[in-house]
Amino acid sequence: MFVLLLSRWLTTSEIRRTTGAKVYENRVVYRGKVARYVSGGAVSYGGRVFPLQKRWKGGKLYVRADQLAPILLQMGGNWFWDAEGKRFFKGKPTVRFVMGRMGDGERYVITITAKGGKFRTIKGEDSLVVEVKGLYGKFWKIVGDGDFVSYVKVVQFRKRTRFVVHFGAREGGYTVRKRGETLRVVIRKLVPKKSDRITVVIDPGHGGRDAGAIGNGYREKDINLAVALKVAKILRAKGYRVLLTRKDDRYVSLYARARMANRSGAHLFVSIHCNASRDRRASGMETYFLSESRTSEERAVAILENSAIRYDIGYVKPDEPVGAIIGDLLQNLLLEQSYRLALSIHRSALKMALTKDRGVRQAGFYVLKWVMMPSVLVELGFITNRREAKRLASPSYQRRLAKAIAEGIEEYVRQQQGGK
Ligand SMILES: [Zn+2]
After folding, report:
1. 302 CA to middle of ligand 1, Å?
2. How far is the CA of 299 from the centre of ligand 1 (A)?
3. pTM for this one?
């Protein structure tokens, strides 16, 4: 449900009155230039795609003013949106922001230059806030490479700009240096810790504002969590060190999940999800590992699961990979182990008659892409199948699923330790 809580949502007539820009259902017109909607939440202008959410309410069209301002700036206006005063104002950009990988690819650098060089930085748990005197206005969000930086949120005020840097899955610490009018943030690549106890990360998919698939009155996020907690319990009882990416109903970004796993020095990563299909008869557990080659059916599953990424970075075309594809050698070497882990879980599920044998599957899941260890994604079953949804929600069936996953993990660990 849509509620106009924040006054950054403006009607088209308010926008026209203050900026002169005409916003329509399918385009934005400003000074004879046209930006066209390419989806419900983004417009294209000058070969670039900008997020611009719109909503109808009471017969009026509303758009996000903070998202519109950077588009108008690109179209030749000097409009900024003051996040504090909640109004448009005219100004001149005086802040430069550049980020990218440094030489060897082991470091990533953010450079912010501002007249007068007045900076303030605040370190957060997962982020770094840089506030600077002056106006930027160019973008509302800047997407990073996913490894070092997932995205940078830009908040504009009347006289200052706030950059909120959200780190990526392989951020391994950073330094901040100021010289004259330039602030440089140098981010190092994570070197994973080694742990001597077998450490497994169990990742209950979705959570909080991201419910995942919904079907037959059940929410995927609840089933994922219930099963994940049961898997963790079984493995802990057997002496494994187990980390959960979430222990309750909360939103955790895909990058944060991957980073948590990478930092912990874990040996295995198992993401737990439920599937959905237009075919209401589809049923059974499926085990996936990361791959770029996909059949159309496997791609459909990947798109479904990756939709969570939209909550992270505002807008991406669902079938477009974020950042570079896995060109990383490390990840390629992990593919074989991921395949073996998937196979082991799949066989365990077969033994317990939780699925038909359709083999292990490959798909391009973002959450697996950033994880630096053998990793798989388990689709427990189809929430869109009435009988299976009911089973998925029952604690006894959840225990069977958890047992199958835990035994698959154990079997894989035995194989690895058996030394081949
Ligand atoms: Zn899911």
Report:
1. 9
2. 13
3. 0.69
Between residues 367 and 319, the one the model is more confident about:
367
In a domain, 163, yes or no: yes
Ligand 1 centroid distance, CA of 240 (Å): 25
Q: Count structural domains, the chain.
A: 3
- Other CB atoms within a 10 A radius of the CB of residue 39 amount to 13
State the distance from the centre of ligand 1 to the C-alpha of 104, rounded, in angstroms. 35
- Report phi then psi at 32, rounded to 5: 75, 0
β-partners of residue 187 are 108, 174
The one-letter amino acid at 366: Y
Q: Is the domain of 61 the same as that of 122?
A: no
Cα of 205 vs centre of ligand 1, distance in Å, is 5
Long-range contacts of 177-182 (CB under 8 A, 24+ apart): 178/117, 178/119, 180/117, 181/113, 181/114, 181/115, 181/116, 181/117, 182/111, 182/112, 182/113, 182/117
Average pLDDT, integer, range 151-168: 93
Shared domain for 173 and 25, answered yes or no, is no
Nearest CA to 110 among 163, 33, 50, 172?
163
Distance CA 165, CA 124 (A): 10
- Asked if residue 172 belongs to a domain, the reply is yes
Residue 194 lies in a domain: no
Give the model confidence (pLDDT) of 47-91 as tens digits. 888 889 899 989 999 999 999 999 999 999 999 999 999 999 999
207 occurs within a structural domain? yes
Looking at 88, 117, 145, the residue that finishes a domain is 88
Q: Final residue of a domain: which of 142, 162, 189? A: 189
Same domain, 75 and 125: no
CA 379 / ligand 1 centre spacing (Å): 8
Residue 181 pLDDT level (bands cut at 50, 70, 90): very high
Question: Domain limits at 25?
Answer: 9-88
